[in-house]
Amino acid sequence: MEKWFELIKQKLASWLVLLIKMLPNLILAILVFTVFFFMAKFLRKIVFRLLTRVSHKPTISGLFSSIFFIVILLVGLFISLQLLHLEKTIASLLAGAGIIGLALGFAFQDLTANFISGVFIIFRKPFDVGNIVDTNGFTGIVEEIQLRSTTIRTFQGLHIMLPNKEIFQKPITNYSLSGKRRIDVLLTFSGKLNLQVIEQQIKDALASVAEVKDDRVQVLFTDYNGDTVKMEVHCWIDNTIEMGFNNIRDKVLRQIHAAVTPHL
């Protein structure tokens, strides 16, 4: 027993000597880590404000500012460990983080893809909340853009949550981007009719539709085979309001029908 106590005493004494020798390094390491901690908090606030001005999304700004905070904190931790001469510990931490990151990457491939796609959508802004879009077979108004999914409310009142990966990788039509949209109406008439009169009557009829300007109406003849003539009527309308296109198209079709019915 005396030998064991002597060995324990010697071991504790050696640790105490080592602690006294490392005490300046330990104090310096604590100070360095403390400085990095407060610096990371300060920089996180600045990054959050800058990203909020760019993206106008508190969610994405908070996420990236938190990631920035963690990175700065890890840098301070590694420097502190370096001051304590714990290089092996640093190597072990980096190796462990790499293995964990690789495993998580394989386990959450779809989640990661949706997250990255959400980041690109928020920053590149191919569409925004309130825009009328057509993607993945759904047409409606964008209600919400999150990091994982985007919510679209169709004109039938259905709320569709689409994964951001599906939106980012497939074609998307943003009807609100240009603010205007063209209505096309195809007509077929007998070749014996006075087409100039019909054209003028169609233009006069569309002039009564307040949403369609007279200088935005085009009447084009697209085909003729002797017996019949094919005609296309083009008119531009404002497409920035909800259900605007469907309602105005209805008005346009009714006016054209009233104008051409006597000639059919």
Automatic annotation (TrEMBL):
Record-linked InterPro entries = LSM_dom_sf, MS_channel_1st, MSC_TM_helix, MscS_archaea/bacteria_type, MscS_beta-dom_sf, MscS_channel_2nd, MscS_channel_C_sf, MscS_channel_CS
Residues of the Mechanosensitive ion channel transmembrane helices 2/3 domain: 67-109
Q: Which PROSITE patterns match?
A: UPF0003
Q: Topology in the membrane?
A: Multi-pass membrane protein
Q: Which residues form the Mechanosensitive ion channel MscS domain?
A: 110-176
Keywords for this entry? Cell membrane, Membrane, Transmembrane, Transmembrane helix
Query: Where do the TM regions start and end?
Result: 12-39, 60-84, 90-108
Do the record's keywords include RNA-binding?
A: no
Spell out the Pfam families in the cross-references. MS_channel_1st (PF21088), MS_channel_1st_1 (PF05552), MS_channel_2nd (PF00924)
Please state where this protein is localized: Cell membrane
In terms of PANTHER family, this protein maps to: SMALL-CONDUCTANCE MECHANOSENSITIVE CHANNEL (PTHR30221)
Question: What is the similarity comment for this entry?
Answer: Belongs to the MscS (TC 1.A.23) family.
Q: What protein am I looking at?
A: Mechanosensitive ion channel
Source organism per UniProt: Niastella soli
